Amino acid sequence: MNTRLPSWLHQKLAEPQVIARMTDMLAKDSLHTVCQSAWCPNLGECYSRGVVTFLILGDTCTRSCTFCAVSKGSPSPVDDREAERLYQTVAALGLSYIVITSVTRDDLADGGASQFARIVQLLHIAEKPVAVEVLIPDFQGSHLSLSAVVNSCPAVLNHNLETVPRLYPQVRPGADYQRSLELLANVKKLNPRMITKSGLMVGLGETTVEVTAVMNDLRSVGCDLLTIGQYLQPSSLHHPVAAYIPPEQFTDYASIGAEMGFSGIASAPLVRSSFHAEQLYRKVLNIS
Predict the structure, then answer these.
(1) Whole-model pTM?
(2) Which runs of E-coded beta strand occur in the chain?
(3) Distance, CA of 158 to CA of 262 (rounded, Å)
């Protein structure tokens, strides 16, 4: 297909000094962000607002998802001081709501769940408590690992389905659609009041019928929040873009999601899992 980006995907460049300042702060504290590691198109806007999505457990993933720009390979050991440094950075930025995600760590017995729980708990007892949204991997289906994260009481627990079941072998090798769906179902069993969230990329070759079916699946397990955004190919080595979905289709998905009963849905070409996450969270709480 034509690789030229359509007009609705063009972004205004951020001021270099803004990005440099945030990058230097994070580098000083040896912290990673998914903004940089996954080459997020919204990096400039978020950094200019002093907002980041932290990437914990290193920056090397043990899986080989073909859509993702994060490095793959053998990760380093877990950094015991990562939680404290992240805490200090959050305090320095004055954040009241943050999103924390991680690479997938299939090399760890608990998949990294204890590190998620430790960070959430640490931020809860901070001088200025912080609402934490976690975007977690599937922990290879471990109920014990999921329980550890749920019991730490994040404000939102997010786990992305990413795409439709038919495309999992090409897009998410090593993942399992039903396992991911069951994870979201189990969150509600562990804590019925916990807000759950998931995300989808479109433009990978899925059909609108398939996307709607996934949305139905998410509602069937009580998922509260949903994000839908356009997949953008990080490089020629990654899964190709099958189509650039027009803004009107994203609007249709948002309408369908509202009718299904999602408490909040963000659906637009440049939407990403953590983009304007606090605003979506506040929709559930009916806070303007």
Answers:
(1) 0.91
(2) 32-33, 53-56, 60-61, 71-72, 97-102, 131-135, 156-158, 195-202, 225-230, 264-267
(3) 14
**Tokens at residue 211, please?**
């996307």
Length of the chain counted residue by residue: 288
**Residue 221: its pLDDT value, please?**
98
Nearest Cα to 158, choosing from 226, 64, 215? 226
pLDDT digits (tens, 9 = 90+) for 100-142: 999 999 999 999 999 999 999 999 887 778 899 999 999 999 9
Structure tokens at 65: 């998802």
Q: Which of 235, 253, 248, 192 is nearest to 70 (CA)?
A: 235
pLDDT at 234: 84
Pair of tokens at residue 106: 């299939």
If one counts every other C-beta atom within 10 angstroms of the C-beta of residue 284, the result is 16
With b for 16 or more beta-carbon neighbours within 10 A and e for fewer, the 62-100 pattern comes to: bbebbbbbbeeeebeeebeebbeebbebbeeeebebbbb
pLDDT of residue 38: 47
Identify whether the C-beta of residue 226 lies closer than 8 Å to the C-beta of residue 262.
yes
Tell me which residue has tokens 């994070």: 26
In tens, the pLDDT along 212-234 reads: 999 999 999 999 999 999 999 88
> Distance of alpha carbon 35 from its chain centroid, rounded?
10
